[in-house]
């Protein structure tokens, strides 16, 4: 049987007109996607509690309601008048939403941006895969909504005005950059040493947990002793280093179990378990069900 890669929420998949009931609330092509109302298009893709891997970077402007969302193991609360930037390759899991939750959303293929130095420009996307969630003032809300309105109007033209959208998008991201910097300068307490270590540790776990499960590996990467790393992570998160590593492995396992046709023993091999029995016992201990039960649930 030909193996399918784990499903990624990418623009190629989202172009399928059958995954939503109301296509008039979205524009999708191979480079750029824009959803003007997440709730009104009534997608069949998202399911509460199901993890997905995002192929492209995302911008979400929350307009109504609330949502609890895990992004690379970290929980975020999406609420009105917040804007979120999510790194490419992130694993996202919606834990719960209010019935009235809604948002504008964009998906951006990396090369779509019409600027040089994309690595610096997408600092919030690419540096340590750090995600961003910002509250907006009333003035900032109006500015962002003005960008959204103009972009959506341009997208209604019969011919895709690529260069116009590219430069409006660049302007929007530069504006978000200014907002983030201003809020960072006004914060009374900068990022603590403890939280800085925690953020760097989580980024390493998201990158290496499929192959590296030893505390010493992560301590070496951070130039710390294993004992000190465990102490800092427990103080910052009330969880141990191994707790976070195990959660990351389970998240990868869930994506593979739901979005590929790999057999359990193949997933066990991919996640570097010594044998399928060990993987199944680990999965059941962490989730309360076997891998097969999770696939069928």
Write the layout of secondary structure elements.
Elements: E1 8-9, H1 11-14, E2 26-28, E3 32-35, E4 51-54, E5 57-64, E6 67-71, E7 74-78, E8 82-86, E9 91-97, E10 102-108, H2 118-121, H3 123-126, E11 132-135, H4 138-155, H5 162-186, H6 193-208, H7 215-221, H8 226-237, H9 241-259, H10 264-270, H11 276-287, H12 291-296
Parallel strand pairs: 1-4
Antiparallel strand pairs: 2-3, 3-10, 4-9, 5-8, 5-10, 6-7, 6-9, 8-11
Helix pairs in contact: 4-5, 6-8, 7-8, 10-11
Account of the protein in words:
- This protein has 297 residues and is of the alpha+beta class.
- It has two domains: 8-186, Regulatory protein AraC (Jelly Rolls, Sandwich), CATH 2.60.120; 193-296, Arc Repressor Mutant, subunit A (Orthogonal Bundle), CATH 1.10.10.60.
- 45% of the residues lie in helices and 18% in strands.
- The chain has twelve helices and eleven strands.
- The strands form two sheets. It has a six-stranded antiparallel sheet, with helices on one face. Strands 1-4-9-6-7 form a five-stranded mixed sheet.
- A hairpin with a 3-residue loop joins strand 2 and strand 3 (32-35).
- Helix 4 (138-155) packs antiparallel against helix 5 and helix 10 (264-270) crosses helix 11.
- The longest helix is centred in the middle third of the chain and has 25 residues, at 162-186.
- The chain is globular, with a radius of gyration of 20 Å.
- The two termini are 23 Å apart.
């Amino acid at each position: 049987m030909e193996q399918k890669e784990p499903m990624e929420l990418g623009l190629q998949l989202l172009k399928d007109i059958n995954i939503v009931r109301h296509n008039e609330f979205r524009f999708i092509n191979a480079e750029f996607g824009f959803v003007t109302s997440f709730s009104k298009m009534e997608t069949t893709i998202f399911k509460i509690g199901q993890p997905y891997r995002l192929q492209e970077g995302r911008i979400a402007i929350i307009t109504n309601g609330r949502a609890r969302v895990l992004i690379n193991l970290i929980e975020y609360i999406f609420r009105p008048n917040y804007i979120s930037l999510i790194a490419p390759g992130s694993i996202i899991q919606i834990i719960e939403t209010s019935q009235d939750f809604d948002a504008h959303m964009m998906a951006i293929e990396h090369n779509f941006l019409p600027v040089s130095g994309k690595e610096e420009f997408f600092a919030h996307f690419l540096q340590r895969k750090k995600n961003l969630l910002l509250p907006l003032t009333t003035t900032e809300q109006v500015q962002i909504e003005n960008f959204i309105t103009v972009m959506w109007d341009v997208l209604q033209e019969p011919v895709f005005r690529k260069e116009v959208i590219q430069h409006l998008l660049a302007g929007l991201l530069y504006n978000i950059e200014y907002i983030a910097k201003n809020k960072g300068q006004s914060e009374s307490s900068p990022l603590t040493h403890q939280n800085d270590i925690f953020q760097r540790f989580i980024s390493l776990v998201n990158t290496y947990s499929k192959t590296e499960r030893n505390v010493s590996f992560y301590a070496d990467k951070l130039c710390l002793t294993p004992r000190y790393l465990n102490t800092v992570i427990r103080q910052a998160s009330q969880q141990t280093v191994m707790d976070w590593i195990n959660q990351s492995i389970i998240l990868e396992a869930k994506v593979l179990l739901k979005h590929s046709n790999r057999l359990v023993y193949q997933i066990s091999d991919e996640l570097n378990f010594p044998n399928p029995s060990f993987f199944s016992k680990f999965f059941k201990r962490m989730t309360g069900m076997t891998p097969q039960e999770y696939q069928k649930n």
